[in-house]
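Priority: medium. Attachment 1 of 2:
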C-alpha cells in the first residue's frame, strides 16, 4: 500500500462540525470565569468549522461549562444547526472576550501553556 500523507476521510459516525485548520487564522473568543480566569477558547473558521478548546481542570466550574459546550457541539450538527447559529449559542453559554481574528497557532500555544502547566489546587 502506498504511503498516505493524510488519514482517510470519515466514512461513518455521527455528524459533526469540521475542526478548524489550526495552521491558519480564525475567529476566536477567549472564554473565562471570574473565579477561574481563562477556561477555554471558542474558535470559528469560515462558515463551516467550529471548535472549543477547554483549558479547565477537573472539578471546577469551568469543567461544567466545557461539558455543556461539548454536549451541545456533539448534538447540534445532527439537528441541522448551522455553524453560525451554533457559534452564537456557544458564545451565549459563557463569559467571553469579544470575538476577533487570531492566528490559530498562537491560540494553540496559549492552550498548551495553560493545560500543560503545573496543577493548581
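Attachment 2 of 2:
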Amino acid at each position: 500500500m502506498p504511503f498516505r500523507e493524510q488519514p482517510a476521510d470519515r466514512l461513518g459516525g455521527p455528524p459533526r462540525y469540521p475542526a478548524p485548520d489550526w495552521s491558519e487564522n480564525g475567529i476566536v473568543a477567549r472564554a473565562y470565569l471570574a473565579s477561574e480566569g481563562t477556561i477555554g477558547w471558542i474558535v470559528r473558521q469560515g462558515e463551516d468549522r467550529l471548535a472549543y478548546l477547554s483549558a479547565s481542570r477537573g472539578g471546577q466550574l469551568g469543567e461544567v461549562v466545557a461539558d455543556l459546550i461539548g454536549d451541545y457541539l456533539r448534538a447540534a450538527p445532527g439537528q441541522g444547526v448551522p455553524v453560525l447559529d451554533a457559534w452564537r449559542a456557544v458564545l451565549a453559554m459563557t463569559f467571553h472576550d469579544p470575538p476577533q481574528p487570531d492566528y490559530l497557532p498562537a491560540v494553540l500555544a496559549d492552550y498548551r501553556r495553560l493545560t500543560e502547566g503545573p496543577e493548581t489546587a
